[in-house]
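FW: tagging you since you asked about this chain on Friday. Here's the raw sequence from the shared folder, copied in full. Didn't touch anything.
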Amino acid sequence: MLPTREKAEKLLLEAEKCNPGPWGNHSRVAAHCAEKIAMECNDLDSDKAYILGLLHDIGRKFGVRHLGHVSDGYTYMLSLGYDEVAQICLTHSFNNQTTDEYIGKFDTTDEELKMIQDALKAVTFDDYDRLIQLCDALAGTERVLDMEERMEDVRRRYGSYPQEKWNGNLALKKCFEEKMGKDIYVVVDKNNFRL
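HL: got it, structure written out here
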């Protein structure tokens, strides 16, 4: 189940009041990218893509956490009955379906980490999971970024960026470009879109 677009926007606004920061606008840029890409794919719903992009980081509502935002978002969305959003909160950071590639601090309890790992093993990724992973790697806080620029920024901030994850993001870009038959940066209006 999904919230409406209006409800999703309200959830994000409420979350930003609890934990203000650039993550809210990053989520808006990801939503923009997801919607635009989905509009070019016959088998994806652009409203659903927008909602999933908008709420992928909703776990940040509960404070400054790294891996913890994954478990927070997942459990929060499940508690509201939004299982499709919960799945995206879970999968958006794990291209290869493992916590081994997580960039950032493992600031979860043992129970939270086990829950993330068990849920990742149980989930079957679909094109929405892959789309939001892609859009997360394109979204800056005010505009769409070149994917390699964004990944390099993450590498600078965290000190590393696993090569498998880097390669996985580039593969996602190529996959969606082939699916659309168009350049991803043209589709998301990289040169002109600004919040």
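FW: The two ends are 28 Å apart (CA to CA).
HL: agreed, and Residues 163-180 form the longest helix (18 residues).
FW: great, closing this out.
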